[in-house]
Every structure is written in structure tokens, then in C-alpha cells.
Design goal:
With 320 residues, this protein is an alpha+beta fold. It contains 5 helices and 11 strands, in the order ββββαβββαβββαβαα. Helix 1 crosses helix 2 and helix 3 packs across helix 4.
């Protein structure tokens, strides 16, 4: 199955705290990556996002952290920074190394809080271990919930032009990833090789009825994601990629980008392949990133596994 690990120059590590039902997922770049961000939700929790503005001065990023824990979870970026600094990563300031590690959080608090700094360090260590392509209930997605169904961590990739584009996501939305009357995913038109069940979407599927988790899980929301490519991009071009990729959330979840979500998409380029050669290739890249993010959300929900204390069933528990 395709994965964000298909992008050359990128590693991914998860740290999961099963007892406290939360975790951290960190993408680490072999060399500082060109990165940007787009925040379209009404209730975001982020760190270092202003530094990614194309109008601001800043070096490439060493890692991007997706984490649970609401604002407490932002401490995971401290742990990731410390672990990377110990490896000699980061830009040099006299005798110091300062890794650049933007982060975004979901709200998944449901019990005792862990030490997110320790989880951040562990996620970086995991990124340098054997590649882990596990999907569903892992890392920052361990306690993610969508409307009526458990969410989770998902990833998908595609070839585009002379390179690769991919997405990874923590699906924890206010809205629903499936029809109101059955198991059919909103992202069904973009599915590849039956990766989330191969069900398609029949004419009778009800995608018009609004289904949310407001009330049942009023404040446990937000979809956070990273889209990455090896195609060389400027920071401004990476920003447009992040903006375009937000459509992937809207194509896979409805309603999306609500006042109760903190929907945040990072975009990063490892620069190992030539830049898009034309406007047509740039549009194709944006379309592929959007499709990958939509697929990744459906994959996250489809792959989720049950844990004690879940507020909602998994897709497999509900639909078989």
C-alpha cells in the first residue's frame, strides 16, 4: 500500500501511549526541507507556523510533528528538537544547533496526560528505526475520532511528473468520512486498488445529511496533515500546495473546516527531483496532493482498530 514514506528524503516515526490514549507522529527530513502551511480550521493548535510564511526569513525545516494532547501536545516538538539537536541537526548559532520543528495538534485528551516531550523524542528515534507503514490506530491517531466512527492515522502516495507526492493525516474531524446511511466513503471516487474496501458509492448513498460528533465528543476535533513531495518547490509554491491539499479534507469529510476544527495542512519539499516544468505540471501536482489527502483520510478510518474506552466503533466493527 502506498505511504508518505514513498517520498525520497523523508522518514516517519510514531510514539504511542496506549494507556493514556494519545501519541505523536513525526516526519523527519534527511536534509532541511522547504515547507509551508495553510490553516483553514477555526480552532487550530500550532507551533512555528508563522516562521513558514513565504514572506518571512527562515531556514528549512528539520521535522514536522503531528500530535495529540491539544495545546499540551505542542511540547512534543520540544522533545523532537532535543533529539535532533543531539544528532547535530539544525542551523548553527555559535555553539548551538537549532532544529526547526513546526507542529500541529488534535484534541484527544481523555485521561491522564503523558509527557509529550518524551513522546516527541521517542517519535524521532522511531523515525530512524525500521520504516513503519502501520496505518490506523497508531501515533497521533491512536485516539482520533470522526463523526460516529473512530478515526486514526492514514497515508497515501502517487507518482506525478518526474517525482512523488504523498500525504499523511490524523483524521479527528467534527464531520463524517462516510455516508449517513452506510459504509460508503466520501472519498470513494479517489480510491486506488481497493485500499479502503473497494465499495464505491451507490446512487442511494446519503451524502447530503449532515452528521457530526458535536454533543457526543464536542471538543475532540481537528484534522492535521502533511503533504510532501520530492519535486523541488519554493516556499511560496509549497504554500500553494498546502492550500490546494485542503480540498482533500473537504472531499473526504463533511462538514469540513468548521469553527470547531483546527484543520491544518503542512506542505514540504525534499527537493530531490526537478521542479515542475510548467503550470500544467504544477496543477497536476496540486490535484495529486488533494487526492492523496482524501485517500489518506478514508484509509485512516478504514484501518482503525478498537481500543478500550473508544467513544465510537471502528468502521470494521460497525460495517464488517
Amino acid at each position: 500500500m502506498s505511504h508518505i514514506l514513498d517520498v525520497p528524503g523523508l522518514r516517519l516515526g510514531h510514539a504511542s501511549d496506549a494507556a493514556r490514549r494519545t501519541g505523536v507522529t513525526t516526519a523527519v527530513f534527511d536534509q532541511p526541507a522547504t515547507a509551508a502551511v495553510a490553516v483553514h480550521g477555526g480552532a487550530p493548535g500550532t507551533r512555528e507556523t508563522d516562521a513558514l510564511d513565504p514572506a518571512r526569513l527562515g531556514p528549512g525545516v528539520d521535522a514536522i510533528v503531528l500530535t495529540g494532547g491539544s495545546a499540551f501536545g505542542l511540547a512534543a516538538a520540544d522533545g523532537a528538537m532535543l533529539a535532533l539537536a543531539e544528532m547535530g541537526r539544525g542551523f548553527a548559532v555559535r555553539e548551538h544547533r537549532v532544529p526547526i520543528v513546526p507542529a500541529a495538534v488534535i484534541f484527544d485528551l481523555s485521561g491522564e496526560r503523558p509527557d509529550y516531550r518524551t513522546l516527541g523524542e521517542a517519535s524521532v528515534a522511531a523515525a530512524f528505526a525500521a520504516p513503519d507503514r502501520t496505518l490506523g490506530t497508531i501515533g497521533a491517531g491512536i485516539n482520533a475520532m470522526t463523526a460516529g466512527l473512530k478515526g486514526g492515522f492514514g497515508a497515501a502516495s502517487a507518482r506525478v511528473g518526474g517525482g512523488t507526492v504523498a500525504a499523511c493525516v490524523v483524521a479527528n474531524a467534527v464531520g463524517s468520512a462516510v455516508a449517513a446511511d452506510g459504509p460508503w466513503f466520501r472519498a470513494a471516487p479517489f480510491e486506488v486498488d481497493g485500499e479502503f474496501g473497494g465499495l464505491g458509492a451507490p446512487r442511494e448513498a446519503d451524502f447530503a445529511t449532515v452528521t457530526t460528533k458535536l454533543g457526543a465528543a464536542m471538543r475532540t476535533n481537528t484534522t492535521i496533515a502533511l503533504v510532501a513531495t520530492d519535486l523541488a518547490l519554493t516556499r511560496g509554491e509549497a504554500h500553494r500546495l498546502a492550500v490546494a491539499a485542503h480540498d482533500g479534507i473537504a472531499l473526504a469529510v463533511w462538514p469540513a473546516h468548521t469553527i470547531m476544527d483546527g484543520d491544518t495542512v503542512f506542505a514540504a519539499s525534499t527537493g530531490r527531483a526537478p521542479a515542475p516544468a510548467s503550470l500544467a505540471e504544477t496543477v497536476a501536482l496540486h490535484a495529486a496532493a488533494t487526492r492523496c489527502l482524501a485517500r489518506a483520510i478514508a484509509i485512516a478510518v478504514h484501518a482503525a482498530s478498537p481500543r478500550p474506552g473508544d467513544r465510537f466503533p471502528t468502521w470494521r466493527e460497525r460495517f464488517g
